[in-house]
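Problem 12. The chain below contains 377 residues. Write out its predicted structure in C-alpha cell notation.
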Amino acid sequence: MSLTLNTNVSALQTQQYLNINTTNTSTALQQLSSGNRLNSAADDPADYAIAYKLGVKSASLTTSINNGNQALSMLQVAQGGIQQIGNILTQLKQIATEAASSNTDSSDLPALQTQVNQLETEINNIASATQYGGTPLLAGAATYTATAAETAAGIDSMNFGSAAGGFYTLTVADAGGALTAVTATLVGPAGTAQTVTVAIPAQGSQSTVNFSQFGVSMQVNGGLTALSGGTATGMTVTAGSSSFQFQVGSENQSYNQISVGIVSLSTAGSILNLGAGGVSTQANAQAFMATIDTATSSINTVAGSIGASQNEITYQVSNLQSMNTNTQSAEATIKDTDYASAMSNFTQAQVASQAGVAMLSQANQLPQEILTLIKGG
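Solution.
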C-alpha cells in the first residue's frame, strides 16, 4: 500500500464502517426504547405494509367487539323491561284470580280494579320508557301501507311513525269551489278528530299534509280528489318492531352484520291489548285471567327472541375476540422488538463503533509516518 498525504484512504474506510456501526447502534437504540422493530417504512418496507394492514384490521375488530357489546347492552335493556312487565302481569293474574272467586266481596272489586288500572298504566310507562338511543324497544313505531284506492285518489303515502297504533278513519271531501282544495279529516283510535284544508298540488308535484294532533303525515299529489265524495276510509295501524343493525366484523359482508328486531308489545293502541274489562265484576275477572295469559304468552315470545339474539351476538363477540387476539399476535411478530436480538445487535454495534473510533484515531496517525520518513532522509 502506498504512503500518501493528500488522501488518507485508511481513515476514509474506517469512517465508512464507523458510520455504518453508528447507524446500527442508533437503530438498535430506537428499537429498544420504542418497543417497535419497525419505526418507519424504511426499516422494512414489505413488513411495514403487512403490519400496517394488520393494525387496521385489529382496530376494526376492536370496534366490532364494542358494537357487539353495545348490542348485548341494548338487549339487556329490553330484557329488563320485559322482566318488569312480566312481574306486573304476575301480580295482575293474582288480582284477577282473587276477583274471580266468590269468596271475594263485591265491595272489594272497585279497589282491586283501581289497582289493576294503576298496574296497566305502569306497564305502558315501562314499555314507553324502555329505550335504546332514544328508540323505544318494547313499543315500536306504528306502520301503515296505503291502499290501492288511496293511491289512486292521490295519496302517495301515509306516515304513522310517531302515532299510536289503532283504528283510524280518513275522510277527504271537496272544500268547495272549483276543486282546488279538499278537506281531510282524520279520526283517531280515541275518537278525537282533526280536519285540515289541503290545496291540491300542481300536476307532477307533491305536498305534505300534517295531522299534528296525532303525529301523522301524508304525501299527496296533483291527482288528489275527494274519496268517493267524502266516504270514510278506515285504516288499521299496527305497531311495528324496533330494528337495529350492528357491524360485527372488519369487512362489508352480510355475515358481519347482525340485524336485531324486537317485536313491539303494542297492539291496537294499547300495550299488550289488556282491554278495559279488568276485574270490575267476577265475570270480567274470569275473562281477564285469559287476557293476562295471552299477554304473558306474548312477552314470553319476545323474551325468547331476545334471548336467541343475545346468544347469537355472544358467540359472534367471542369469535371476534379470538380473531383480534390472533391478528394482534401476527402484527406483534412482525412489528414488535425482539429484545434479546435487539440487545445483541446494540452491543455488537456499540463495540464496533468504539473500535472504529479507536481505529480512526490510528488511521489519522498514518500521515505522521511521512514526516518520519522525511526526517530520516
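Discussion. The helical segments are 9-34, 45-99, 109-129, 148-152, 282-335, 339-365, 368-376. Students who got a different answer should revisit the alignment rule from Section 12.3.
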